[in-house]
Amino acid sequence: MAFWRSKKTNDESPENAAQAPEAVESAATPGSAKKDGGGGILTKLSSGLQKTRRVLGTDIRDLFKSEGRLVDEEFLGELFARLIRTDMGTGPANKIREEVARQFRGRVVHLEEVIQTITEEIRSQLRQDHGGLAKSESPPTVILVVGVNGSGKTTSIGKLAHHLTANGHSLVLGAGDTFRAAAVEQLTIWAGRIGCEIVTGKSGADPASVAYQTVDKAIEVGADYAIIDTAGRLQTQSNLMQELQKIRNVIGKRLPGSPHEVLLVLDATAGQNAISQAKGFSAAAGCTGIVLAKLDGSAKGGVVLPIREQFQLPVKFVGLGEGMQDMAAFDPDSFAEALLKG
After folding, report:
1. Fewest C-beta in 10 Å: which of 81, 134, 208, 255?
2. Residue 45 CB: number of other CB atoms within 10 A?
3. pLDDT at 148
4. How many CA atoms are closer than 13 Å to the CA of 110, on its beta-carbon side?
5. pLDDT tens string for the chain (342 positions)?
6. Where does GTP bind (predicted)?
7. Do residues 275 and 281 make contact, with C-beta atoms less than 8 angstroms apart?
8. pTM of the entire structure?
9. How far is it, in rounded angstroms, from Cα 263 to Cα 281?
10. Distance between CA atoms of 226 and 220, rounded to whole angstroms?
11. Binding site membership for GTP: which residues?
12. Which residues are annotated as a binding site?
């Protein structure tokens, strides 16, 4: 087991730039960021949802002529088909179709009216009671992060750690994905750039042991947070599910009541496949929230709707690119607005 405190590094030489993750500006926690302005949530979401909005907006606009369109069964069927293309699933798409039918059936309507109704229905479906990170009554707050390899899990941890330290919090990272040397190396680079402490183990070491040592170190140094990466092989492998349960048990023994937050990172480009990921990990790890990564690279941004519908898990953060401002707090109102209107 290895532990060290990494010093912040500002070395932007070509050699280091090639292997270090992109630096990110502080991502706001839900409810704390402005919803307008150059760096606000709406602006970030609008940029990140360009591909989804292009597909959905163009498809819906194609349903209308300048004189409007009669809302009949033919129109409603065509609208449903367009909605499905964003991977929002049949359940949420049906609710939108039914609401449009309830308000406009038998009437000739124009595009703007339907867009407004769809936006309001999406906003209603995405409404969640809370989206902020959980916080324990006394530190450290332990955050376990799970997800399939390639979902953006380790990078999301780095961005979350950057956000917390930028807001004055101390933390310890745990490189619990011991089966992937690249994951450990990547998280170690993040720790160096951020200037936070990290616990690692030898390749193939027991992930639960790394998790235990991370919480132990966070308690010892009085850190505000402990964020632990986990293995991310296919969610259908029962041994991985057992491993996640073991990590939870070990963490809970060291610090009763922990983990306080279990974040599931999902790849937005996976679309409906993200649902099966959520099913496997949610059951084994007891997920409490979702980070939707790579939203900017997908035309399937609608997948957030069936995720909310089926699991009733709050979406906490969304990944919106690879630049400095690539993570944003999830805000249902802004998301609904950006999905159709931009």
Report:
1. 81
2. 28
3. 84
4. 3
5. 555 554 454 443 333 333 333 333 333 343 334 344 445 555 666 666 777 777 676 778 888 887 899 999 999 999 999 888 888 889 999 999 999 999 999 999 998 999 999 999 999 998 887 668 899 999 999 999 998 888 889 889 988 898 888 889 999 999 999 888 899 999 999 899 889 999 998 888 899 999 999 999 999 999 999 999 998 775 556 688 788 889 999 999 999 999 999 999 988 888 778 777 777 777 778 899 999 888 776 667 788 888 888 888 889 988 876 654 577 788 888 888 877 765
6. 147-154, 229-233
7. no
8. 0.80
9. 10
10. 11
11. 147-154, 229-233
12. 147-154, 229-233
Between CA 285 and CA 266 the distance in angstroms is 14
Run of H or E including 4: strand 2-5
**Gap between the Cα atoms of 117 and 104, Å rounded:** 10
Strand partners for 327: 319
- Kindly report the backbone phi and psi dihedral angles of residue 260, in degrees, each rounded to the nearest multiple of 5, phi listed first: -85, -20
Helix (H, G, I), strand (E, B) or coil at 315: strand
**Contacting residues for 268 by C-beta, under 8 A, at least 6 apart:** 274, 292, 293, 294, 295, 297, 298, 300, 301, 303, 304, 318, 319
Residue type, 180: R
Alpha-carbon dihedral angle through residues 100, 101, 107, 109, given to the nearest 10 degrees: 20
Euclidean distance between CA atoms 87 and 272, whole angstroms: 6
Give the integer Cα–Cα distance in Å for 50 and 342: 8
Retrieve residue 27's tokens. 């991502």
Contacting residues for 18 by C-beta, under 8 A, at least 6 apart: none
CA torsion through residues 28, 34, 37, 41, sign: positive
Would you state the pLDDT for residue 342?
54
Give residue 291's region: left, alpha or beta (phi > 0; psi -120 to 50): beta
pLDDT of residue 1: 57
Q: Do you find a cis peptide bond into 140, omega within 30 degrees of 0?
A: yes
Instruction: Assign residue 207 a region (left: φ > 0; alpha: ψ between -120 and 50; beta: otherwise).
Output: alpha
- Cα–Cα–Cα angle for 93, 98, 99, rounded to 5 degrees: 100
